[in-house]
Specification:
About 15% of the residues lie in helices and about 40% in strands. With about 180 residues, it is of the alpha+beta class. It has one domain. The longest helix is centred in the C-terminal third of the chain and has 14 residues. Pfam families: DUF6544.
Length: about 180
């Protein structure tokens, strides 16, 4: 995680204004102006705590409780997810997922020390990691602004396409709006 923080450009002191969404497709502009108050400082780093249940297999697999901490940076795009999944009393898996400096890695270990599986940097993993980054940016929405490197393209009245570039990987992500009122 230290490598993620060291590569981050922090201290960016911009604050959100309506000018930040000038030229952004309607559904995205509507979302951003609803979730970002005027003057909201741009986020450059964020730490998230998560608890919940997830499945380790298909839809017939049992739900297992987990806790996780995620650190994310905006410039450059990156994150580190560190989760503990309780399989049974005194038995847990540790899952770590890192996207930093345009490279992704993932690992699964028993008790956090006995390696079970891992994935190293590959074009497919980098694309998946960048897609995850973009999908989760709704938790820190200033990362979705054009100033943060996101390019928006209108598809139709209710759909827009987002593109984030990090090296050669440019996964598209479509955003569909729903009617919101203030």
């Amino acid at each position: 995680m230290d490598e993620l923080r060291q590569s981050a450009n922090s201290g960016f002191e911009a604050a959100f204004t309506d000018d930040d969404v000038e030229g952004v497709p309607g559904p995205v502009r509507e979302y951003l102006t609803n979730v970002l108050p005027q003057g909201q400082p741009y986020v450059d780093q964020v730490r998230l705590e998560q608890t919940g249940k997830l499945r380790l297999g298909d839809a017939s697999s049992p739900w297992k409780p987990f806790t996780a901490t995620q650190h994310a940076t905006v410039d450059p795009p990156g994150f580190y997810w560190d989760a503990s999944i309780r399989l049974a009393p005194l038995l847990s898996l540790r899952v770590r997922d890192l996207f930093c400096d345009r490279e992704g890695t993932a690992s699964v270990s028993l008790f956090g020390v006995i390696p079970l599986d891992s994935a190293t940097s590959s074009p497919e993993l980098e694309e998946a990691e960048l897609m995850r980054y973009l999908a989760e940016a709704v938790w820190y929405p200033t990362a979705l602004l054009p100033a943060a490197g996101i390019e928006w393209e209108s598809i139709d009245d209710s759909t827009a396409k987002a593109t984030v570039e990090d090296g050669e990987y440019q996964p598209p992500f479509r955003s569909r709006s729903t009617k919101t009122t203030r």
